Amino acid sequence: MSNREAARKRRKKRLMKKRIKATAMLxxxxxxxxxxxxxxxxxxxxxxxxxxxxxxxxxxxxxxGPTPEMPRIPQPNDYTLLVNRENPLGEDYDVQTxxxxxxxxxxxxxxxxRAVEHLEAMLQAAADAGHPVLIRSAHRTISYQKMLYTNKVxxxxxxxxxxxxAETEAxxxxxxxxxxxxxxxxxxxxVNVGYTGQLDQYFEDDPLFNWLVENCADYGFILRxxxxxxxVTGIVYEPWHYRYVGEEVAHYIMDNDxxxxxxxxxIKIGKS
Length: 272
Ligand SMILES: [Zn+2]
Fold this sequence. Notes:
Blueprint: H1 3-45, E1 97-102, E2 105-112, H2 116-128, E3 133-137, H3 142-158, H4 163-171, E4 187-192, H5 207-215, E5 221-223, H6 230-233, E6 241-244, H7 247-255, H8 260-268
Helix pairs in contact: 3-4
Bound molecules: zinc ion (ZN).
């Protein structure tokens, strides 16, 4: 082998080594790029590079079955009758009542026999929670309401008011017979036994009031005349006045912060 030939072979060998090195570097680079890309995709899709391995336990996919459509608004029942100035009770409205037993004591106050047990359960639960209840008013017959109203009208007539004006003034204090919810027999006015104040807005500061707002719907009752709904109900805020409407409707009304008037609006427009 000549020196020239030997030199050429060495060059060739060096060249081969260089090519192998270059090829190895290229493969390394490709591999790096591939892994980097996979890592990026993993970041974007939230799956790691290792997720390309077959997963032993794939995430369960929840497919909603054909569940029956549940109505969002409960249907009216025997206790959802709307009574207000626009919707007076008929003169002949009749309801069977019995005495309310409050915290084990029979009272002179009367309530619709069909719902009185729910009221008694609520009064008992309030007492057990440390808030014994004093009933201030419950069922009033329409004839009793008439007497109250007539007395009030007479007061104004005696003050020199004309008949029409006397009636208008009286209606500000006493509901016109048939337009008071108390005529229904599904209503109580209640305060804490220890509450010494008037039936006014300040009863909302009493712990019984908070308990009632939290729990009354569980017994089928609603706060009938809320503070922010005077324009809807036409009645001033009455934190002491609770109306029975049944548990489902009571929850719908209390949970949505609405009134019985608004419940009936929802029913009319078929909101469901
Ligand atoms: Zn009342």
